[in-house]
Each structure stands twice: as C-alpha cells, then as structure tokens.
User: Fold these one by one.
Assistant:
Number 1:
Amino acid sequence: MAPRKRPETQKTPEVVVRPKSKRNRSPRELEPEAKKLCLKGPGPSRRFDSGCLWAGLASLRVPPPCSIIRALHQHKLGTAAWPSLQQGLQQSFLNSLASYRIFQKAAPFDRRATSLAWHPTHPSTLAVGSKGGDILVWNFGIKDKPTFIKGIGAGGSITGLKFNPLNTNQFFTSSMEGTTRLQDFKGNTLRVFASSGTCNFWFCSLDVSVKSRVVVTGDNVGNVILLNMDGRELWNLRMHKKKVTHVALNPCCDWFLATASVDQTVKIWDLRQVRGKSSFLYSLLHRHPVNAAHFSPDGAQLLTTDQKSEIRVYSASQWDCPPSLIPHPHRHFQHLTPIKATWHPRYNLIVVGRYPDPNFKSCTSHELRTIDVFDGSSGKMMYQLYDPESSGIMSVRLGPSNNNGRKQGFTLPYWIKNDQKLILMCPSPSTFIPSSCLSPCLCSSMSSILWGTHWPL
C-alpha cells in the first residue's frame, strides 16, 4: 500500500498593512503632485508620469461592476425587465470611466474650437469648426492627413455644424459670417440656405431633420428660419426677444422644436402649427440666459443649460411642472466656448464640464475643472473625470451611438472643447486588444487632439 500523505498544516494568514495608494487618494491630495508632474518636459513620457492620476473622485466611486451576461440571461428568461437591463448596462459604462486616460494632443487651429459634429454612420469620423471659420474633417480609422478647410479668420466663427443625413459627404454650417450653408469636404459651397448680407446679423445655431427634410436656423436678434432641403424658406419669424443660442428638433417627433435664447427662455413649438411669435406650446422661464436645450435620445426629456450655475431636466409629459434642478458651476465667459450639458446617446446620463466659481454655494478651495457625469433621473453626481495634463475648462460633446444603423458594443467617446485644443479621452487598455476591437475617440480643449481606444462592453 502506498504511504498516506501527512496532512499539510494550514498557515495563519499574515495581515499586511499597506500605505494608502495613489489611486485611493482624493483629488485634493493628488493635485499638488499632479502639478509637479506637469512641469516635466514635453514628449510622450509625460502621460506615463501622470497617467495614474486620472481621478474618479474617491467619494464618488461607483459600485462594483455588475454582470451584463447575467442581466441579459435574466432578461431573456423574462425574470428581468428592460429598465433593469438598461440600468446594468449603464452601470457598466460608469465603471469603465475609471480607466479613461488622455492619450495624445494636437493643435489644428489658431483659435478655439467652437462646434463639433460626429459622422452619423462612421463613428471614427467627425468635423470640428473653429472661431476663425476653419473646419477640420477627420477620419481616425485611417492614417491619411485630415481634410482642412480654411476659414475667413476673424468674424468667421462656426456656430453650428451638422452632417447632411441624405449625403454624409456634405455638412451644414451656421456662422458669424452671416450664412447658413451646405458644404462638401472640399470646402465648396453647394447651397446657401440663409444669408444676412451684413456683418451686424449672423446665425448662431442650426438643426436638420432627415424625416421631414427641413433645416432650422436661429440668428443673433431672435429670428428663427425654417427651410426645406431645397433651400426654400417656409417661414421666418422673430420667436425670441434676443439671440437664439440653440435650436433642436426632437429625435422622435421631428415636428417638435425647442429654441433657447439669452432672453432667459426656452420655448417649445409645433412646426405644424406655427403662426407667429405667440404660437409656442410652452415657454420655460429661466433665471439666467440659456446656452442650450437638448432633447434626450428617446425624445421624452429636455435638458437645458443656463449661463451661470443651473442645469434643468424637463419631462415631455408635463412641461409646465417644476423641472429637476441640478446646481452646477459653468458660468459664461465671452472668450470661452459656451459650456452645454449634453445627453449620453444611449444611457440616461448627463455630461457637462465644470468651471469652478468662487461664488457658487458648494465651491471648495482648489476645486478641479472636472468633467461631471450626472444621473438624468435623480440628478445625482455619478462620476468626475480629471487629468492634470489637461486642467483647462472643458466643454463636452459625446460621440455617436450607431454604426450603419446598428448599436455599437463599445463604450462611447467624448469630445472636449476649450480654447484651441482638441483632446482625446479614452479608456486605457492594460492588455493586448485585437485590432477589430479598437475604436478611436476624441475630445477638444485648447488646441490639441488625443487618440485612444475603448474596451468592448
């Protein structure tokens, strides 16, 4: 008989007390060290020195990741409702924010970026406009030199930018040059939809509906013009007392129009019933001038951003009821690209850049210029992103949620705008990822562009 093995004695586990890691420190502890690291010379090594300093603030850590596979399985079995599955996917996205890093920067413009549009069918392609009227069309999926369309310089600021949904090799622009027009990637003007003919009047915003085949644009004195795709003017009315800062068509009911203005109102219109300036459905009063009004991807909510310290969420079912109010510092400054809160294209999340204000009620000393993520239902802060290599003031633009009409299986990219830089923010992979899983994402800030990849969900 084979001899029996003596049972091994179990060792008592040793308790080791480790010092507090950098990753668990609060941003206030990290800030002095971040500033030291940013003083190092230029070059790629800078990002490795401060890469670990990306901060989802310690007090805002999200819960441990949930199992998407399990949530999908339960939904298929009928034991989990769709909202529960959607919440699980949203939580997975929030967990992924901890891995976001700045990867690279570039400076294509001599003035700040003022407008940005993602290509509707190619997630790696976007167009960016500058205060000098320059337009950059970039496909990040190839190494070819991006298309650069030179503007007129001073007075040519691009205020609105949308790809043509009927021909994605073209895009619409509104500008301080006094025109709303359709252009191609070579810079040729294909059609002028509206022209003021004078430098005293210019266009501040635009939106396009592919279903109704209309273009809507607003100007600096309160006028809103509706045109069809052939350039024929349907009506031209003064809908606000002052500049129209934003126009938005509802993505589900494109006859539903929201207009925002510095006259401290956001108005809701039915394009089928517009007869004059008093024919609005609702007028939503604000305490300060309003920068933007964005419909949610499902069209059921409206997100507004004022020029001081308030974000509001209105429900489409009850426009006249008090909205959800989110106090948030993002005050307006003449030489800063306006900060506009925006929706995540898939989840019920709000993303907005923070501009700390000493007069803001909850302002703290040495408050960071973070990118803030809020829950669209509760208004609760879910996460804050920060990197000392890009400590400027951020305006955020989220990337597209579709790829040739199909939902992507990737976390979604951000654009961040501030001065003349374009900055790319992305999840940072720690292991090898097949090239088929790579998808670039971009953001814009003072004059740089960053490259990176995202993880599949």
Number 2:
Amino acid sequence: AERRGRWVTTRQRLDPLGGLVAVIPGPDDLFVPRGREGLYKLAPGGGRARGVSVLGGALGVARERLWRPAESPGGNVIELLIDGEQFFPALRRDLAAARSSIDLQTFIFSDDVTGRSVARLLARKAREGVAVRVLVDALHGVLSAPLRAELRAAGVELVVQHRWGESVAGSLRNIGHTLLDGVGALFGRRPPLRERRGLWNHDHRKIVIVDRRIGYCGGMNLGHEYEFLWHDAQARVRGPAVARLEALFSERWRAAGGPTLVLPELPPGSEPGSLPGPARVDVVETLPGVRHDIRRRYEQAIASARRRIWIECAYVLDDRILAGLRRRARDGLDVALIVPDDEVHDVPVVRDAFRYIQNEVVRSGVRLHKYGGRMVHAKVAAFDERLATVGSSNLDRIALDELAEANLFVEDDRFAGDLRRRVFLRDFRRARRVGVERLGWWDRLKSGVLHFFRGLL
C-alpha cells in the first residue's frame, strides 16, 4: 500500500508479543494518494478491535483508524475584507512586512496593473531573502514570460500547473483508471481514492500565507477587476487555522511538482497560534476524486439551520444545494439567495441555465435577489446567528466535485454578524427582488438546453 500512497484504515496483524508483523489492506479500507499522507494521522486513543480471534489471549487481528484533521480548533482571529479596496491594501501590507516566507496560490494572476504590482512586491521580498512560493493555474493564462522570468531571477519559486498537455495526459489517465477500476470491481475490489487532474480538474483556490502566521482565503484572484470593479469577499485569519491553510498549499505544491523548499525558522514570537482569538475556523476543501467536504458542509448547514440561510454566490446550479434551499424555504425558514444580475453576469451560459429553474426557486419561497451594477463574484453564506463561510467555491457541480477549492467555515458570533451586516443587509438593498417571470419560447428552449448540460458549466 506504500507504493503510491497509504490506506485510510488498515487491518493490522499482531504477533504474540504485540509487534506489527504486516499491514494488509482490507475490503473496507480506503487508499490515499501519495503526497497526501502528511495530512492523515492515527486517531487519538489507538485503534478499535475488530474481529479479534484470541489464541491463548495473545494472537489476534486489530484495526487502527487513520483520521484526517480537516477541522481547525478555536483560537483564531478572523477579519472580513469586502471588495478589492479592503483586500489588496491589507495583502500588500502583509507581503511587504513578511520576514521569513510567503506562499501564494491563485487561479488567475493577470498581467495587468494589479497583477504586476503584486508580482514585483513578491520579487522584492525574494531578493530580501524571504522564501517565496507562487502556484498558479494555467487555464486563464498567467503573467507574461518576461515577468515570470523576472520573478524567477529574483528567487521566487513559481509553478504553473494544469497546462494543456498535463491536463490531456491527466484525462487519459483518468479514463485508464476508470477502466481498470471497472475490471477490479468485477472481482470485488474497491477502487482506490485517486485525485483527478484532467481537463476539467483545475485548481480554483485563492490562498496566501505570510510567515506561517497570517492566512488569506476567499474568492479574489489577482487582477484589475478584482481590485477595482467586482464585488467579492476575502477573509484574513491568524491562529491555528493558518497551519491548515499552509498544509493545503504545501500539498498542492507537491502535487504540481513544485521543488522541495525548506522554510526558514519563524521569527521569535510569531509562531502560529501565538495571538489566539475566539473564532473556530474549519478549513474545508474539495479535491477531485478524493474529498468533497465543501459540499458536505453546505448540505449539513442547510439541513441544520433553524431560522435563516443567506447565500451570496456567483454561480448556483447544483441540484442538491438548490433542492435543500427549496426544502428549507418550504419549512418556513428565511432563505435568501443573491446572484449577479443578468446584465452584468460574466458567464452568460450559467446565467441562462439558472433561468430555467429560477421560477421554481422563487415559488418554493426562496427570496431571490439579483445584484446589479457590477459583477458579484463572492462565495459567502450565513446560517442562523453563528455559522458563516467564505471561500473560493461556487455552488455548481464543477466547483463542488471537479475543482480543487478551499473555504473557511467560521463559528463565531462576531464574524457571522459582520457578514450579515456588511454584505447581506447592504446587498439586499442594492439588489432587485425577483418574482416569477414569464419566459418566451426561445428563452425556455435556450435555458432548458443549457440547464441539461449544467454539470459541465
């Protein structure tokens, strides 16, 4: 099991003296791909005995469970940053003050005024001796070749992942694994967990970690529209959750083939968690083929809410999420959804696919609002009084199943209240409430066809 990874649970054969003789994968075990082993560990308290046969009380079979610390403990300080006018100044201040390391991952790193200013700040810090790692997805293009060369010449470790050739090869591997798993299933084998890195499986996360004590996570890429034009949200966190963000970044860095980099020692007094706060922050991820925890956490929060579910999101097409919202609205909860207005939506095919189910959403009792004037790119939600989330994941099948994503789920009265006051209550006033609308035959046909292909949008 160690050739390409390890099993999430193991059946362990013990000798009469209690020493481990062999580790044999069992039918209920799950396989973890190489590069993710560091995010798993033995569960506290040891294993649970299962099917133990006792010969003289000495020989038996025991089972130890491995668990993954997906949740961060309390003791975090978290700030909500709304729009580029708040996020980018804070980011630049933290980058400029970095003393030991900067890890930055983004989906889009535009070669414009905003992107170049951040890139040159990273280059300056690298020349000062700060360890700088930058991970960018290739789908939408990245910094120009001269600027990439400038970064690397300054000492920045830059990795561009999911290039077309890599993605095509990944899709072919996915097809091969699917065929092999199908053959294995005929013989009762459970297929291993494998990350999918094909044409559809890009890395949509936006994470920054500075000196391993300050972390950012949210919806904003590095580009002009995110700093000056669009409506979006990001969170800045200090405390134990930063170590989890660092673990996500480092795992993606290794998966993308990034070079091993030994980070310098932290400056005295700047260790993670040295400035504790009241907020419990869970760093939750989606990793295609391996983990779909953002979907799970959204569904749990929707199902367990008692009074209120408010969501603001750029792209909402997932059947299960929408069914849950309609069901809770019929239960009498205050369910509200804010999406971009039709005139400013940046992906017309997603806008039109949503129109096919829009009336059904409204008839269920969900308050549907469309935000006009500028594109809404935020991915935020507030549940009742205490739970809130901000991150990179939209609420469509591509984001929830096929892209690598990261969200912060925050249990904190102050942060949840801040999100309600500064985002939702303001945006309700700026958005138009949508009722049942009559669609012409062409709009019904077009939206119906696009909705049929919603799993690809």
Number 3:
Amino acid sequence: MNQPSILLLDDDADLRHAVSQGLELEGHEVAVFEDPMAALSNVSRDDYSVIVSDIMMPKMDGFDVLSRVMDIDPVIPVILITGHGDVPLAVKAMKSGAYDFIEKPFTVQKLAAVVERAFEKRRLVLENRRLRETLGEVTDLSARLVGRAPSIEIIRSQILALADAEVDVLVLGETGTGKEVVARALHDFSSRKKLPFVALNCAALPKDIIESELFGHEAGAFTGANKSRVGKLEYANGGTVFLDEIESMPLDVQAKLLRALEERTIVRLGSNHSIQLDVRFIAATKVDLGESSESGGFRPDLYYRLNVVSLEIPALRDRKEDIPLLFFHLAREARGKFRREIPPVSPGLEAELINYDWPGNVRELRNTADRFVLGLWRGFGSQQSVQESTTGDLSSRVQAFEKSVIEREIQSHSGQLKATYESLGLSRKGLYDKMKRLGIQVSGDGSD
C-alpha cells in the first residue's frame, strides 16, 4: 500500500497555500490543484488518498468532482468545503456520497481530524479489497490444483510466489501430473495474464517444421514457404510460452532456443533481422534433463539456463490422501459435462481408488471419473467390460454400454426385475425386450 496523500482542490490560491501548509505541518503529504481535471487525472482505484475539494469553483463545482471521483472508485473519501454552506447544501453533499462537509471558516486542526478518520476508512477499504482478491486467487488456485497434501500445498504457494517474478521456470513431473495446469496458473496469476499463453508440445511437432513453428519464416525461406509466417515465440510477445516435453526438441533447435532465452531475440528463417522478445518461458519435462545432458540427448547449457527455478509436481501415488477428494472433484466436473448424476461411491470402491498406483496420474484419474459418471466403471474388477464397451463402431459401443448398465442395475437389485425396470424408468415389457435383444440372462427366477 502506498503512502497516504491528500489531493486539495480550490480556486483560491491563498486558501490552497494556507490549508496545504497547515496539513503538512500536521504531518500529511498534500498535492494542490487549481484545475479539477488535473486533480482527477491523478486519482485511481488503488490510491491511498483523500480528496478535499471546494464546492464553488468556476470550471467544475465540487459536486461534479465528487461524481467523477465516484466513477473511478465510489469509496474514495471526498470532503467538501465551502463558504456558502447551509443545511440543504450539507444534506445534498452527504446524499451525493461525500465523506464529510465542512463550512468555512474552519481550523486546520478540525480538517486534519476529519482527514485522519477518512484515511482510516480508506485504509480498511484497501486492506479488505486486497484480502478479498488474495482469497479469490487462493480459492481459484485451489480449484485448479486440488488437494490437501503438503506437497501440493507447497506447489500452490510456489506458484503464487513466482507468478509475477520475471524468471523462466522448469516444471518437472510424470505424465499426467498436471504440468500444463501449473504453467497456465503461473501465467494467469501474473501481470502477463491478459496477453497470450502459447503452449507447444515439442514431441508432437515433426522435426522438419518445429524450427519454423517456433521462430517463423520469411517467404521463400524453404520449399513451400509461399508467404512469411509469424512463429509461436513472436506471437506470444508480452505473454508466456509453454514448451512441453522439451526433452524431445532436436539438438539444433535447442541451440537456437538457448540464444532466444539468453538474448531475448529471435530471427525468422530466411531473415537477417533480429526481433526483440518480451516472453516468459516455462518448460516442462517428464525425464531427468541432467541425465539426458550427460548422455548427449539434451544440451547441458540449455539445461542449466532453464533450471534456474524448478517446480516438481508430485505423482498421484505420492499423495494418496488426495485421491478421494480429487476423484469427487473430477466426478463433479464430469456430471456437468455429461449431465449425469454421480453414482454412489462405496467404501470398497474408495479403497480401490486409494490403493491403485495411478501410473497415468491425474489424467488417468480424470478418465476414470468420466467413465464412472457415465456408468462404465465400477471398480478395477470391471475393467474388462469397460474396455469392451469402448472399442468397435458406435452401434456396438452403445449396445455394450446399455447392456452393462442394465446388468449392473439388475445386480444392484439382487435380480429383482420389477425394481430394475422401475429404477431405469422402463416398462416391464421394455426391460424384457432389451434383455432379450442384448442377451442378458438372470440367475434365479427374477420375480417381479
């Protein structure tokens, strides 16, 4: 929070001098203005300031000043003073949103006391506003990186600490741990959030076009380059570039990337002209780049340049206490996506979720939550039927899905068909027809 200051507006030069001098002797910082427009140009929503304005001024009266200030921030304290005060004018001032109204003549001590109270109100407003913003950021980040494990809390705190730091970041983690989620959070919580976030998967780009994708090219730079093209790094200027699976980048392209990182300039293919870059680089890898650099698969100088700040995302198996919470969070997202209710989760199913190792990490857990909400997964023992229902053409997949739903519903009702067709919203005949068509057999008499 900046230092408190008073903006004093009055067309009377002698009064401006006397009041500002008196307030300064009381220990306040005062900026004086004869022109209200000049004063208003110095007002912003984040100012720790109080405005003291005369009402009767030739260019703009105090009520217009009050209105303009309230358009900027309705809770900046405005104190109106006048030598033409009366009760109706005072009432109008307070109804219009003035913090207080003082009639001339007044002592500087009286004005200073009002200003002190106004500063206290302004301080509380700014602190509460900042607190709400901070809580909003934390809540939003907690929704992106769900969990209560100490390791995930550390990641969240590191993101908030590094978001506005002008430093490149290396994100480490196994496949599916959420490396791009972390990269996007670093961008979205930074001052670059309104500028581009450009994500590239280095493993997905063919070797013969990755250089052009990154740096761009001029017309005629190579066969097929009929016109110039802006590269991803240039397009992201002012924002953030996320380079996923950077270990897959060819060594010759790594050399050019190193130069871009060190000099913050690029040269398009086929050009001799350097282009300045204002970009934050975030790279991600699932391998040990230190070992790769020792074995010759990754440039050591690029590794050391990237590894200034690194964030390591824990594998899901290393924070098992978060699995139930994260599963329910992902199931709620799936409910909204598929417009299906979330089936009940038994203690046994929850135990299966916790005991499984999740080699695909959060990505695998998300897919499992999607299948669970769709009725295609009820535990790892049903994995075979799930696989069968997700292969083949559309008709066979739909039939497999329909069969699995009916079979599970019959099983949940201990083979009672009446309870089954009522819970599925089918008629008795409708259920029997589907069972016949899908080849569903019921053990026992299936009495209804």
